[in-house]
Amino acid sequence: MDSKQTEISTLGEFGLIERLTKDFPINNKTTKLGVGDDAAILDYSELKSLVTTDLLLEGVHFDLRYVPLKHLGYKAAIVNFSDVYAMNGIPQQITVSLGISSRFTLEHIEEFYSGVKLACEIYGVDLVGGDTSASMTGLIISITCIGAAKEENIVLRSGAKESDLICVSGDLGAAYMGLQLLERENRVAADQTDFQPQFAGKEYILERQLKPEARRDIVEMLHANGIKPTSMIDVSDGLSSELLHICKSSNVGCRVYEEKIPIDYQTAIMAEEMNMNLYTAAMNGGEDYELLFTVPLTMHDQVKKIKGVSVIGYITKPELGAALVSNDGKEFELQAQGWNAFKP
Amino acid sequence: MDSKQTEISTLGEFGLIERLTKDFPINNKTTKLGVGDDAAILDYSELKSLVTTDLLLEGVHFDLRYVPLKHLGYKAAIVNFSDVYAMNGIPQQITVSLGISSRFTLEHIEEFYSGVKLACEIYGVDLVGGDTSASMTGLIISITCIGAAKEENIVLRSGAKESDLICVSGDLGAAYMGLQLLERENRVAADQTDFQPQFAGKEYILERQLKPEARRDIVEMLHANGIKPTSMIDVSDGLSSELLHICKSSNVGCRVYEEKIPIDYQTAIMAEEMNMNLYTAAMNGGEDYELLFTVPLTMHDQVKKIKGVSVIGYITKPELGAALVSNDGKEFELQAQGWNAFKP
Q1: What are the chain A neighbours of B145 within 8 Å (beta carbons)?
Q2: B94 near A CB under 8 A
Q3: Structural element, H or E, at residue A18
Q4: Contact B60/A147, CB-based, under 8 Å?
Q5: pTM summary value
Q6: Which of A141, A262, B180, B197 has the fewest CB atoms within 10 Å, counting from its CB?
Q7: What is the spatial distance between Cα B220 and Cα B235, in angstroms, rounded to a whole number?
Q8: Backbone Cα Rg of chain B
């Protein structure tokens, strides 16, 4: 171990928490008391609170051979913020729990927290608690995020109606192709000494994988334009999977058009290079953290004006099922081929 | 694998969550929407919310060779409820995230959830979310609990004043001695075939380890008797460690008396049997989930009337430090010898 590195056992659990959390300011009026007692105290007197939680495991959700710890901390926070935005709410507080195996030093964990801190600063979220423990194997991250919303603004998955337009922010499949690239370069690196990975011209897909953003801007623009979606979800497991969630919760069907799916050119080039089907990446890749939402047909003109939003299809009667319409007009039933952590 | 057991991969993540959470009712008015969207929706309009979280890892916090999964689920919920009671609040919602390695079947995880459900029923708490994932090794449990309190009722660690009485509920050290017993019988079992563990007359210490309760009754009795503690914390890491937390947060010292520490006779017998120091178990054992609190000296008579509460000492000026006074009148400085998960 590098001699400048600090073994975590020298601090103990309470010393570690104190050290990691001391530089986090309190931003929100809803935070009455943060880290340091048995529980944090929150004040949501005029608002509803939204609660979401995510578990991220080394070797299952991330690979530290090519994910820097600071990026991991940033992303771990972002994926939770994204769930709150997907309810049309504003993230306010997070708790961060870590299981830490003995190969990590204090400096490693501080790197991780610096990413959490950056995400909290940018999105105006307060760290209010957490837990730390030794772990037998690898890094374990559990984050819970609490958000705020006026009751009348909350958007569920269950409100989509027949003839609603289906919209998605940003573009899809880039994070997945970024992951393919990282895994390929990592395989090559394992075989060669003095290996330099080839990332030029692929910055966008790498950033989408390593440092995704949550779409606060879309939530704000929808609000500023007086648009309240009828349903909304964030794209974490792939567009197909999320469309099926909306269809099931809302008891509707849908048609989305292959030609309307927004895809960045770097994603397309990478899929070509790796001989992979581009639409499989876009429909099932996941980790996009874009917002998928529906609006009444009458809002077509308003929603088209919002930069970075694509209209990709429409909601149908439930009997019609959920399908992708290919460029040659054929219909393919949507399958949730999103990531299943339990598949061997 | 038993042919009646169901591999989790056959359900996938969403199928698993649906299966596990379908029998949980909603109990609380503060729960507007539970499991099934990107986030749960809570309404804390007239109350403050309290948030606490715990991470429990197989091989670090529990050993499934002698902890039944149902008990584990119960305990995992209880330890979080206990943190909310320690703020003088009422637990309302929990989220349960699980990392599950391939040796667990659906039926195993349902066992765990049946324990969570029992705890939720008894304590009137709603399950509102969670996350599940495959894990590379063992079972990972992350629970977040949200509680409710009127602002004026919340009790922090930081309010203890000089001359306050130090009180603790129940008795201490039993859960620790129960763990020693389980570990001993497990070691013996490993060496023998047809081994029957010897648990007769030791039911209480086993129950304290395997199925602890959170002290809702104490919070209710304090309230009914018009007593608001000046500080409070739950005893999870051992009395010494918790006293030091109160002293540090409140900037005070304390004296507690060895002869006043409440200890059950089964705890004492087991310590004798295992040739261990009884007061080390009581002061540093941990996992008692009793409430440690301070009240003004003037409340002595009221607090003595509450069944199951012992007055064990008093708060001093900070200069006097924190000490245990032994039966022969010697003072021993309190050390936080509570459990440090990071010690190799």
Answers
A1: 39
A2: no
A3: helix A12-21
A4: no
A5: 0.90
A6: B197
A7: 18
A8: 21
Whether A57 and B97 lie within 8 Å, measured CB to CB: no
- State pLDDT tens for residues B279-315: 989 999 999 999 999 999 999 999 999 999 999 999 9
The pLDDT tens digits for B64-117 are 998 999 999 999 999 999 999 999 999 999 999 999 998 999 899 999 999 999
Per-residue confidence (pLDDT) for residue B247, from 0 to 100: 97
Q: Which tens digit of pLDDT belongs to each residue from A267-287?
A: 999 999 999 999 989 999 999
Give the nearest chain B residue to A341 (CA atoms): B134
CB contacts, 8 Å: A50 with chain B? 39-42
Q: Is B230 part of the contact surface with chain A (CB cutoff 8 Å)? A: no
Residue with tokens 């330890």: B79
**Does position A187 have pLDDT exceeding 90, yes or no?**
no
- Scanning every residue of chain B, which has its alpha carbon at the shortest distance from the alpha carbon of A53? B130
The answer to whether B342 contacts A86, with C-beta atoms less than 8 Å apart, is: no
Quick: pLDDT tens for B179-218: 999 999 888 887 777 777 778 889 999 999 999 999 999 9
pLDDT at B10: 78
A83 interaction partners in chain B (CB closer than 8 Å): 38-39
> Least CB-CB distance to B147: which of A12, A39, A60?
A39
Query: Does B1 have pLDDT greater than 60?
Result: no
Helix (H, G, I), strand (E, B) or coil at A214: coil
Tell me, yes or no, if A57 comes closer than 8 A to chain B by beta carbon.
yes
Residue A4 neighbours by CB distance under 10 Å = 7
Distances in Å between the Cα of A246 and the Cα atoms of A239, A298, A341, B191 are 11, 20, 21, 56
Query: Residue A314 CA to chain centroid, in angstroms?
Result: 24
How many Cβ atoms are within 10 Å of B322's Cβ, its own excluded?
Answer: 23
Q: Do residue A142 and residue B147 have CB atoms under 8 angstroms apart?
A: no
How far apart CA B113 and CA B71 sit, in angstroms, is: 10
**Residues ≥6 apart with Cβ < 8 Å to B218:** B85, B169, B291, B306, B308, B309
What's the pLDDT score for residue B39?
Answer: 82
Q: What ipTM score was computed for the predicted complex, to two decimals?
A: 0.88
Q: Give the number of other Cβ atoms within 10 Å of residue B255's Cβ.
A: 18
* Contacts for B143 with CB less than 8 Å, ≥ 6 apart: B53, B54, B56, B76, B77, B79, B80, B94, B95, B96, B97
SS3 A300: helix
Crossing angle of the two packed helices A216-224 and A69-85, in degrees rounded to 10: 30
pLDDT band at A3 (very low <50, low <70, confident <90, very high): low
